[in-house]
User: Fold this.
Amino acid sequence: MFQCLGDQVKRHKMNLFTQQTVMLWLCVARTLTTAELVKLSTVDSVIVWCHQSVRLQCNISTSQEGLLIKHLAWVRQDGKHLCDVNGTEVTGTHPGSTTSAMECSYTPQTQLSLTLLQVRPLDQGKYLCKLRSSHGVKEATTMVKLQESYKEAQPSISDEGPTCTFTGVYPDGEVHWFQGPNNVTGDSTINTKQVEDGASLTITSSLKRKTVSGEEAYNCSLWIPSTGSYLTSSLVVPEHDKARVAQPNASGSGSIGPLWKPFLVLLSTLFLV
Assistant:
């Protein structure tokens, strides 16, 4: 009798184990199947010039019809929701509403785009596209990185000497001065840095040198220590009492004309010797 009872208990435990195993496999299979029903795709990372715009696209694809999107959003790494889709309604941040303006656009069931306008250093980081739908929950990530850049170069001259101001500088930089082949950075007596809204910098440097009409022009070059290169250069010409920028492009992204690149390499070599 006791043996029969023991066998019944064993069979009962075995049945419970079998039922639990089957239920576990069903849950796993359902999860895997649901995960394959819908996919999100974004680019892994983008590199953008400071003060320019970038568009982040989150693409939705599904292997079955009947996808019901319950919630779709672009979310910054600090948890702030930038674009939200609830049903067919799209809400987001629009130009002028914050310092870092952005726009949202939505193609139903297909794509949610986030455009960052006038990207600043504070806008760098991770952006997540999050989806909650009838076919499962998915997430994709894009990293936004900034290229070294500046917004504007403002050279000027007075009887006291030349001055150069570079605005919107990213990352941190220094102003190096040259007169012909001579490095005269040591003569700069006024050097200031101010943090702008968005964490870029305004860098100003002056030479305390009496300017004489007809003397050789001064050159102020923006040096970026983190990259070990010059970003742009400006000429200050005493005989005309004015200054001119050495061929930056119209966007202010800091590219230098081909004629100036060998010159700046020479300046860099002279400075580092």
Notes: The CA atoms of residues 126 and 143 lie 5 Å apart.
